[in-house]
Amino acid sequence: MPFTATFPKRPELARDLRRLEQHARQHGQTQLFIETPYRSQMVLEVALETLQPDTAFTVAQDLTGAGEWICSQPMRAWRSGKAVVLEKTPAVFSSGAWPGVLK
Question: Is the pLDDT of residue 5 over 90?
Answer without folding.
Answer: no
